[in-house]
Amino acid sequence: MKIRRAKVRGKHQPANGKSKFYGAKLLWFLRLSFILLFPVVINEIMKIKSFLARPFASYIYKGIRRSIETAVADQENILRSMIKTGRKTEIGKDTHLNEVNTYEEFRQAISIRDYELLRPYIDRIKEGRHNVLWKGRPIYFAKTSGTTSGTKYIPITKDSIPNHINSARNALLCYMAETGSTHFADGKMIFLSGSPELERVGGIPTGRLSGIVNHHIPRYLRTNQLPSYETNCIEDWETKLGKIADETLGQNMTLISGIPPWVQMYFDLLTERTGKKIKDIFPNFSVMVYGGVNFEPYKSKLLESIGKEIDGIETFPASEGFIAFQDSKNAEGLLLNTNSGIFFEFIPVSEIFKEQPTRLSLKDIKVGENYALIINSNAGLWGYNIGDTVKFVSVNPYRLIVTGRTKHFISAFGEHVISEEVEYSMLKAASAEHIPITEFTVAPYVSNGEDKSFHEWFVEFEKKPANIGEFESRLDEVLQEKNTYYGDLRRGNILAPLKIVPVRKNGFIDYMKSIGKLGGQNKVPRLSNDRKIADELIKWKEN
């Protein structure tokens, strides 16, 4: 009995002062050990992340490979499922989806719409109504800026949120599976994005897509993520960038993500503060994730700032849905997300403004043709023109490149020049003289009769050409080869040769700042069919 009582007291209530002394010693020792070993423990946990990522990446990658073979069937299944759900919604009743069973019938029932045609349904959702565009109510509104529609509110539903989250994850996992490189998961990662603070519109949490996605980063990655939540909430881009630099200098940055021009602005600030290349500031930086604009015009300067070759992962996210991502370093183009809640349609760019354009499903597209991208999704978007144009470079698998925006073109004289063509021409002309370009945009200059009209290129050079006239001639020749209509107008002496207006250093940044669109997901339009941007940029031309 005495022994038993002694055991009980030893466990719960020390029998004497000596036990208290040794108990305090043990507690002190354990605390000291934890303090000393904490960095080691954290380091090992981080290593476990990259170790466990390997089998998970392999599993997901194999699933994506299998889905390549079933892309058309998956699209057909998504359409059937959407029609079944859509029949019970207000838009489904308005369009008689209960009578639709085939894609041909679907095209007749669902017309192509932009945000203005979608707005009445969005307004009903804001009023608190259910089952308007999709079952229930959206869990978020992604807020975007429109030129004609003002602020747009794009619904994100419980069914559609995995498309945004899993697609970004899959891009990283495909990279891991193909390269075997997972060590970047052990370090710090940053995404240069909009504020994660959300407001409520019609009772629905609302904010920038990047801010919404920020709320869905898994807990096990939170320890890797920079900048801090407080810094991410800063609205002023220059102030925010300064704080991001404060928080990341001295950190083990391994992955950096964002829209290329804003990543470049971040790199410039780091170099300005330290006098070093990015590779010397962040020795373990190995992966850059980017999207939103064509990377090629920014590649040269970014790599010069980094100081070494680096792996890149390209993505095609949009508020309306995560469209495609780079699934392989060894293949051109981005893999279309054919099994992620979106049914895709494609309209030949030449027909986009027709009342009854040709509408194609995935099985009917052709390699090399430019299409306007139309989506139908489990976010409640039906026949929605997101404004992007794409071109397929492969159909097995379905890989594409983004060629521009439906509203970003020049056809003031019938030439219909698109973003892909001006970017190609600039890259070819600049690479011939090894001239790095910071930014550029193109607009038509319509003569009032004194001279011929021409295309005016506003260009911010990192290093100006030795002879600007020769550079203009080379650029003009390449564009004539790339766009036959432009070539005909030039050879017919209807258009004068293009002219370049050099923009002073940081002129484009100052322009974006002046219109309140510095940083975040904003970007400079590559070209436009009017003079609105051009006439503003005149303020920042070189003297």
Describe the structure.
The protein has 543 residues and is α/β, with parallel strands linked by helices. The chain has helices spanning 2-12, 17-69, 71-86, 90-94, 103-109, 115-126, 161-179, 209-214, 219-222, 229-232, 237-248, 260-274, 278-281, 296-306, 419-432, 468-482, 484-491, 507-514, 532-537; strands spanning 140-145, 151-156, 188-191, 199-201, 204-207, 225-226, 253-257, 287-291, 311-318, 321-325, 334-336, 342-348, 370-377, 384-395, 398-405, 409-410, 417-418, 437-445, 454-461, 499-502. It folds into 2 domains: 39-406, Rossmann fold (3-Layer(aba) Sandwich), CATH 3.40.50; 409-540, GMP Synthetase, Chain A, domain 3, CATH 3.30.300. 42% of the residues lie in helices and 20% in strands. It has an 11-stranded mixed β-sheet with strand order 6-3-7-8-9-10-11-15-14-13-12. Strands 2-1-5-4 form a 4-stranded mixed β-sheet. Helix 2 packs across helix 7, helix 11 (237-248) packs across helix 12 (260-274) and helix 12 (260-274) runs parallel beside helix 14 (296-306). The protein is globular, with a radius of gyration of 27 Å. Residues 1-15 and 29-46 have low confidence and may be disordered.
